[in-house]
């Protein structure tokens, strides 16, 4: 069984985000980039399934500029078998990503697609669900446990009432939560081997997908600073303060 793992190149989680002076977006020049942490978890889970004999090949896919090849190489160094880079400039929205992944799935015919539940740069949490809908495949979101059993996969996910386990017929789409696993570090020998692993390139045009954004970002601004708290002597004073602040 093949497993496809989409990965996204984002600003490193340890870097403080800076907004451009003109408010047109986030400053990306000379900023350390890394693989989306949720996608790292997806790569790790695919590797564990392969090590358990449940998968035969792991294909990593990234969509964006040529620099996304570095993110794919990181996944290859972790242990993935090959990569596919879909070159597309500018902002790529979740629906376009889902359509591009659908086209790749049609070519590769995997038994499972595992992806992070969201990317830390936009927190959209949409791509996995959209991909499952476009493919008409069952989906298991926010997975904290994944177990492949023959022609099915069991996914344990957190819900408001506790934990829920769903059993999905393969092929299926699974999105990963933080509690699923702890991603491994790539060793130096594996980093060197990753340079020789195959990495194919294609474009959104070649896949027949229009990746033009449908939304316009009007403005981007940093969140306002947190104000100091105050003490109140009674519940009545608390209510009065809340009314003054417009909360009540």
List keywords for this structure.
Rossmann fold, 27% helix, electron transport, 248 residues, ETF_beta_N, alpha/beta, Electron transfer flavoprotein subunit beta, transport, 11 strands, ETF_a/b_N
What is the structure about, briefly put?
With 248 residues, this protein is of the alpha/beta class.
Structure explained in plain terms:
By secondary structure, the protein is of the alpha/beta class. It has a single domain (2-244), classed as 3-Layer(aba) Sandwich (Rossmann fold). The protein has helices spanning 37-51, 68-78, 94-108, 127-135, 188-194, 235-244, and strands at residues 2-6, 9-11, 33-35, 57-64, 82-87, 112-116, 139-149, 152-159, 162-169, 172-176, 199-203. Strands 9-8-7-10-6-1-4-5-11 form a 9-stranded mixed β-sheet, with helices on both faces. Helix 2 (68-78) links the parallel strand 4 and strand 5. Helix 3 packs across helix 4 (127-135). The N and C termini lie far apart (56 Å). The mean pLDDT is 92. Belongs to the ETF beta-subunit/FixA family. InterPro entries: ET-Flavoprotein_bsu_CS, ETF_a/b_N, ETF_b, ETF_beta_N, Rossmann-like_a/b/a_fold. This is Electron transfer flavoprotein subunit beta.
